[in-house]
Amino acid sequence: MPGRMDMLRYLILVLSMLxxxxxxxxxxxxxxxxxxxxxxxxxxxxxCDRGYxxxxxxxCVLPMPSESRKLSADGRLVGPRCNIGYRNMVCVKVIVPENxxxxxxGTEWFCKRGFRxxxxxxxxxxxxDIPANAKINVDLAGGWxxxxxxxxxxxxxxxxxxxxxxxxxxxxxNGWACNKGFKPRENGCTIDIDHSLDCNxxxxxxxxxxxxxxxxxxxxxxxxxxxxxxxxxKLLAQQPDKIPLDFTALKNALPSYLSRPxxxxxxxxxSQRREEEGIPxxxxxxxxxxxxxxxSLRILEAVxxxxxxxxxxxxxxxxxxxxxxxxxxxxxxxxxxxTLDKHIKNPEVRYKDKRRQLAEKSLSKESNxxxxxxxxxxxxxxxNPEQYVVRYGQYLAKLTELAQKYSHVxxxxxxxxxxxxxxxxxxxxxxxxxxxxxxxxxxYQLSTIGEGDIFTHIIxxxxxxxxxxxxxxxxxxxxxxxxxxxxxxxxxxxVEASFxxxxxxxxxxxxxxxxxxxxxxxxxxxxDIGAFTTFIYLSGGNTNFEPALxxxxxxxDSETISRMLxxxxxxxxxxxxxxxxxxxxxxxxxxxxxxxxxxAGFLSASLFSLALFTEAKFSASESEDNQxxxxxxxxxxxxxxxxxxKTFLASRNVSLKQPDKNKDSPENxxxxxxxxxxxxxxxTALSCLTPGLRNRWKPLWFQMTEEDLGLMVDSVKGxxxxxxxxxxxxxxxxxxxxxxxxxxxxxxxxxxxxxxxxEM
Length: 760
Description:
The chain is an alpha+beta fold. Among the domains are: about 1-95, no CATH class; about 490-660, no CATH class; about 660-760, Roll (Nuclear Transport Factor 2, Chain: A). Helices cover about 50% and strands about 15% of the residues. It is flat. The chain starts with a helix and ends with a strand.
């Protein structure tokens, strides 16, 4: 240790002595000073700029004699490294070939996805280069690899892997291994008797023969010391109910003593299959269940599951006997008797609940099996997209049949929503990637369920207008969307109500544009632009519009911006690109982009109005530590976007309505509400409420007579603000009814400078 410490002190001393002589000269061309300090010294160093690397003939100046290190073996990435006391002095530009990009360090280049490196160029990987049953993989030789379940043969193709019986595909997909309980033998798998005393010899059971094999293994090993059948019973409990199980054989095969885990799975088998032959087994285990208060009455539940009331009577009699002998607690006894008597009296209730539970379980199992099938199709998306659409459509058809089969089960509602989203994704893929709008329309129509009909008609109208150049059919579907919206019960949630309101306004303006050719102009309210934010968030999430933008937030990349500008014309292209609009550096480019995807102009007017309003709002409160700065404020930091906003709104004669001074405080809003109700001006009264609360009170107020409205207002005897909760204000209201005073609370929220009532 002393030697090592002396050496360390020596090195530090040498570095500190050298630092006085190693002051950096000015950085050479194409280089810059490296700002990070060098430990133990005040040495200054420099490094090459991004896009430049040290050349192979780099020089090192010599403040003190030594030798520079040699080049790395491959001669790439960097030039020679200098030892302490030496300095590199030459930077040369890295020549990046076509279809390549610099690495993160800026000293090497790599081919873009879909290309492979050949000498000093990037060669495109074409479909012709990829054999059947393979997909692109630029990291491997040849630029491709075989699909899962296939292996590369000597001829440069992919052959299907033959998996032995009792074997499985290996995790990495290019080999196979034996299932648990089996061992390799020649080219197959044989039972590993020496290591399968638990008889869990299959990953899962799929045939009667495998069931019999497990039961025979249990019988063979039941007398062996240390034999534990729990894992084998778990395997049998997990097998599909449609596979028959010889319960008599299983009962005879089991050892006389069963551990608690083994009993748990044995009971589960009896319960799931409702084995009447298993009733004596359950009644035999029941006393143990009733005595042990640490565990739930799982055996009692299993007895009830079999749906044999005579067995319930036997369980009741046994429970009474155990209680009379003092072997179970009074609490346990009362609960058990209550549970049994409830079902003995009305067995149909139990049958109905249990059948619903079984149906939900079956639905979950069957849908999961179909989902596995769908995941196996992912490789086709790139290698054979047409076949992918066909096969995925078949999967969705099966899933739809499953939802109809279990339509009586509440869980099927969630499945239908999932089916709709998946149809949307498949239709988007078909429309954009395959450029087959007619086929996409058919898929969108298959997605329709419930209120989804509203948005589906909007998407189909979008296809007819932009892809098929058929304004007449687009108009028809926009109108059908409004008809569907009228049938939907008004939303009482503010977010959903705002979305519905803006959606209706947008569709009406699209209809007007198709019928007259007039772009949007006029006044937008602050509530309109507030609803626009919600609308963009929800509508943009309704479809995974292809192709997705590359590069994430790094939109300075010219290729990514070019990809954005080349998106196909559609309102949904606009939704996907909104976050990146401000990064376009020309006012003309921004306006052209918006006109391409929103010729009617209502969405563009809402976007620009929201951005200007956000800028004004934050400018007015820039001294505050406001954490709610969002994308709209970021947009306005870019001159091109700011100028585009001003030009668009001025040329289209679009303005933002100023806040109503009658709602500039909670007190004023409340007074306006009372005056409006008193004078039967219900529209003004409703304007004092947020959209969700408006939908809640509108039916009631329109049913009341003018006299009733006046009496309601007169019953309010007091109003005073009581609390400030973030952006919300709370007020207490005193109401008199039949000579008694009652208190109530009203909550206000500021929406664009107007205080609206959110709850009362």
